[in-house]
Amino acid sequence: NAGVTQTPKFQVLKTGQSMTLQCAQDMNHNSMYWYRQDPGMGLRLIYYSASEGTTDKGEVPNGYNVSRLNKREFSLRLESAAPSQTSVYFCASTAGNEQFFGPGTRLTVL
Amino acid sequence: GENVEQHPSTLSVQEGDSAVIKCTYSDSASNYFPWYKQELGKRPQLIIDIRSNVGEKKDQRIAVTLNKTAKHFSLHITETQPEDSAVYFCAASKRSGKVIFGPGTSLSVIP
Question: Do B34 and A97 touch (CB under 8 A)?
Fold first, then answer.
C-alpha cells in the first residue's frame, strides 16, 4: 500500500501560469481533501470530496478548482497562479475517522 | 463561520514536565475531534482522537478531554520527551466530512 501519493513534490511557477496538483490513494477511502499550509496558519481546507462525484468548498477555495476523477484520484488546479498561492499543499483521505495525509507539494509562485 | 481556535501558539517545557494545549470550536454539530502531530518537513499524523459521546480518552502519555457544553477540548502530554517536540494541530469535523483545523501549537521540549 502506497497510502496517499502526491505529485509533484516541488514546483515553481510564474504568476499567471496554470498547473494541476495530482493526488491518489489506494485505501479505498470515500472522502478526500486538499489543504494548504502556511506558517502560523495551520492547515486550511481548500476543497473536499465526501464521495466520488461530489465536491464542496472549504475555507479558502478562491483561485482553485478540483476534480474527483474517480474514487482514487482528486486533483487540484490553479488556473492562473498568484504569489499568494505560494504554500505547501497537502492532500488527505479518510474512511470516516483518521485522515491520512500525502507527503505534500511545495509550490512557489514568482 | 466554522472556526477552531488553539492556544498557545508556542509552548516550551522542560523534559519530564507536562504540556497542555487547548482548543475551542464554534460548530455545535461537530462530533469528532482528532489531534495531529507534525514533525519538521513531514506530513501530519494522527496521535489521538475523541468522539462527542466521550469525555476523556487516554493512550499512554497522551490524553484528550472534551467539554461539549463549553465546546472546548484539550490535549495533555505527560512526562514529555525531546521527541515530543513538533507542531500539534487540533481539528473538529462532522458527519458532512468537512474538517477544520486549528492554527497549531509549536511544542519544544528542552532536555
Answer: yes
